[in-house]
Amino acid sequence: MDIIWAAARRSWTRYTPVSPPPAPLRLMYVPQGFPAIDQGIISALQRTVREVFVGSPQHMLEQARQMKPDIVLVLNGLHVFPATICSRSAISEGSE
Question: What is the CATH number of the domain that holds 43?
Fold first, then answer.
């Protein structure tokens, strides 16, 4: 068992993690209101996609129309989602 452990430990020291390049996406994140969770998600998204915009629950539709993101990520949106549910086509229509 010690031989297997020693071999595994040697292979671990040779591994250098490599982050993939950010995806060429514009993402709008609407936080859920828990600062520690939101900051962790924002930090991870900034390493994952090209551009991250942080929106507000009260103005997400207007902000999405202005920013024209490829993706809108809303956490816990049942508590703050606007009365009229917006879709990608609703966002596009506002820009015309």
Answer: 3.40.50
**Model pTM score:** 0.64
**Does residue 12 sit within a domain?**
no
Q: How many domains does the chain have?
A: 1
**4 burial via Cβ count (<10 Å: 0-12, 13-18, 19+):** exposed
Residue 28 has pLDDT above 70, yes or no: yes
For residue 28, the tally of other CB atoms under 10 A from its CB is 22
Instruction: Identify the CA nearest to 22 among candidates 54, 39, 44.
Output: 44
- The answer to whether the beta carbons of residues 27 and 51 sit under 8 Å apart is yes
Decide if 14 is inside a domain. no
pLDDT tens for each residue of 53-89: 999 988 888 999 999 999 999 887 655 555 555 555 5
Q: What pLDDT was estimated at residue 96?
A: 47
Q: Which domain holds residue 45?
A: 21-93
